[in-house]
Design brief:
Elements: H1 5-21, H2 31-41, H3 54-65, H4 78-91, E1 96-99, E2 111-114, H5 123-128, E3 135-145, E4 148-158, E5 161-169, E6 182-188
Antiparallel strand pairs: 1-6, 2-3, 2-6, 3-4, 4-5
């Protein structure tokens, strides 16, 4: 899929959030005030920073880039928007699709979902469950250093801040998931 204006905006928004807030913890301003904004801009009640806010971060970035709630299911939990994206893919409808990590190479503007807390959920599990613990982050760059390929992601509530990580990719550009921690890759077709 070609990178679109929407994808460029989503990447820019995620990068800006990272640049502005990476040195602050969730219980420090200005990040704490911004987390409050993430919740409220989506129409959610802000429960405080002790409640996981990573899905709200992703949803806020997607909304701010221009996706409507019909185009992307804003949610308080990653599993909710992933479940909807998988259902869209199965039915051949909607603008947000989800794929197993071994079947789709992530691109800037996509969202990578992974396990957390030692869980080992896979794509089949995600397709049949709307509620489970997971994490996701926005792909802001795909690149290589020598023979090593990677996808850089930016996510919320990573070490209690806005964080950046690198996801290893194989030579074809698919997630190199040797530890079986990745669940899905979401593609937003706007």
């Amino acid at each position: 899929m070609a990178t679109t204006e929407f994808h460029n905006k989503l990447v820019s928004i995620a990068n800006t959030q990272y640049t502005q807030y990476r040195y602050f913890r969730e219980n420090q301003n200005p990040l704490m005030s911004q987390i409050n904004r993430y919740w409220k801009d989506l129409g959610f009640h802000f429960p405080g920073v002790q409640t996981p806010w990573s899905a709200v971060f992703v949803s806020w970035c997607v909304k701010t880039a221009g996706a409507t709630e019909v185009e992307f299911a804003y949610a308080k939990a990653h599993s909710e928007f992933v479940y909807q994206a998988i259902a869209n893919t199965k039915k051949g409808v909607g603008l947000t699709k989800a794929f197993p990590p071994a079947e789709y190479a992530p691109q800037p503007g996509d969202i990578i979902q992974n396990n957390r807390s030692g869980n080992d959920y896979d794509f089949a599990f995600a397709a049949s469950h709307r509620s489970y613990e997971s994490h996701s982050a926005i792909v802001v760059e795909v690149g290589s250093r020598g023979t090593e390929r990677y996808a850089k992601t930016i996510g919320g509530n990573e070490s209690d801040s806005v964080g950046m990580k690198e996801v290893p990719l194989d030579k074809e550009g698919f997630i190199n998931d040797v530890h079986k921690i990745y669940i899905s890759v979401l593609q937003i077709n706007l």
